[in-house]
Amino acid sequence: MPPKSPLYHIERLWGSLTRPSPELTNREERELANILSSVELALLLAAMIIFPLWIVGNPVFTALSWLVPALGVLLVAAYILGRGRSYRLGAYTLLIAVYFTIVSVMLAAPGPMPERMTALDFLVTAILLGSLILSLPQLTLLFAVSVLGVAAFFGVPEARPVVTFSVLVLVTVTSALILLTTKLRRSHLQRLIESERPYYALFEQSHDGVFLLNLQGVHIKVNSRAAEMLGYTQDEIVGLSFRDTVAPSEHEGSENVLERLLAGERVPIYERTFRKKDGTPIPVEISVALVRNSAGQPLHIQSVVRDLTERRRQEAALLESEAQLKSIMESMQEMVWSASLPEFRFRYMNPHTEQILGRPPAAFYENTRLWFDTVHPEDREAAADAGRALLQDGQCEIDYRIVRPDGAARWLHSRTWLVRDGSGAPVRADGLATDITERKLAQEQAFALAIEKERVRVLIQFVQSASHELRTPLSTIATSVYLLTRVAEPDQRAVYIAQVQIQIARLSRLIDKLLVMTELDSGTPLTLTALDVNRLVQRCMDGVQRIAAQKEMALVFSPAPELPRVVADWDWLEQAIENVIDNAVRFTPEGGSVSVTTCAGDGRVVIDVRDSGPGIPDTDLPHIFERFWRADEAHSTPGFGLGLPIAQEVIRRHGGRIEIETSPGQGSVFRIVLPTGT
User: Fold this and answer.
1) What letter does residue 241 receive in the DSSP assignment?
2) How many other C-beta atoms can be found within 10 angstroms of the C-beta atom of residue 497?
3) Are 256 and 292 in contact (CB under 8 A)?
4) Could you read off the pLDDT of 102-126 as tens digits, one per residue?
5) First vs last Cα of the chain: how many Å apart?
6) pTM for the full model?
7) In principle, which of 24, 240, 336, 650 could form an S-S bond with 350, CB 3.0–4.6 Å?
8) Nearest by Cα to 254 from 224, 211, 223
9) Are strands 554-558 and 593-601 parallel, antiparallel or unpaired?
């Protein structure tokens, strides 16, 4: 750092000797106190030179032996009072010293009166001092008293009128000019203060430090925030060079900024390290400008400084948080990603992505289509639907497959959510994908095992139920065959042969039913055509007419006119409807009735089969569609318990359903509901 000039040290010393007390917080008071203390210090220093010369040059002025010490005491008192809150009292003390000097010289100085009257010229000094601290009425009174005091010498015989007149003119004209100038200056100053007040308030209330420096880089004014930032008082900073506040390692850069400013160059915002009063470094951001007057001449340098300590702390905390988050994401066994919208360009993928997808993240950064190409072809439509749901709902969750470069397919469970800006527009999509291939395989194996167990259970149940249904006719056949070997009468043998034939027919029907169930279970495809339901129902009614006639039952069909057609397989649907009607006929007592009606509405055709039977108990309802189940455990009612299960499966495969309405003692209604078609 270059050595400081003697002038710099003198300026700093003078500033420290004339700086007002910190107790003075009002700006106008501080400025006035600074001016008065400067005047008082200047007079005190001048007196230290003048008083010895005065004593040496006037040996006959014996009164100087007490006058000089008295004046010295008054000047020292004025200077001491002028540094504190009693700065006005110091100014009054200075006024008293001036008048005391004038009166003392007039009364005690040797020589004729005209020579002593030259002391009256110092009345101008008194009025000049009064212009600094007195109000205009007080200053006017002081002016009048001073003029009248001089005019009074016209009545003193020893005073020459010419000398009195000359002193009176000097005091009057000079004092009048001081009075007028003071009035104009104070009026202008008041207007200036009022105009500057908002700017000064802004200057003081700014959250940033504001530094005003002269063209040599010495601080001439700072706001309270600047002082707080550096740990000084405002007065302590005034007089310091920028070199006293900037870290030594950055002096060269700051001097370069000063040179560029003085050369007329605009300097952009830059950063520096300041030193606080206690030596603590503080990072700052500086905006600096050269302030010029209306003529374009440089006045001073204005520097706005922002403390970056909190920002740096937040940045460090953010970096640490980001590092922790990155460490967590990169150690996760799931795929973590983030993509910008609307182009869906990946901004981040954690390293585990490569283990799951078989491709490095960089490949997805470069190719926006690669992600969609990685999705299994059979799952791309579902993935597209999930993307639309994401934009609509703000989040989505889906299981889908991806295909690795080696051809291996992997199952992923993906959770995705949107990130929106302040206006609510989506700007980013973040996601988390988990490889669930092993879980899917386990689920598929568990499902296959469950299916196998169900197949075994159904097979066991089928064997048990079928064996029961087979055992009875086989037993009857075995008994009849045995008896055939024991009898010789033709009539008796004919009876046994007839029983064998009946049971063989029963077995044949059971096998037919079992074959039907097997076809349904194996998913035999339907042959669909548009068919007339009324005509189909009439065929079914004809099929059960013989049984109804044997039981002397009324079998009634009430078709709806202009019934819409149903797209169905004629053979299978005929078998299903006939089983439902046959069931109603078999469980309705002799002499009862079964009525069948058809109707249409709401895109469906409804077939109601209503009987006058005993109804179905609540305990039996859950079982009526179970295979081989019959309400009478003794199996006294004809049938195998397969009619309704076959009917339900056929109707289900046609997209319909069977509904039941029943009431004990009131009969039952089996309602077949089928969708219409063309």
Assistant:
1) B
2) 13
3) no
4) 888 888 888 788 878 888 888 888 8
5) 101
6) 0.39
7) 336
8) 211
9) parallel
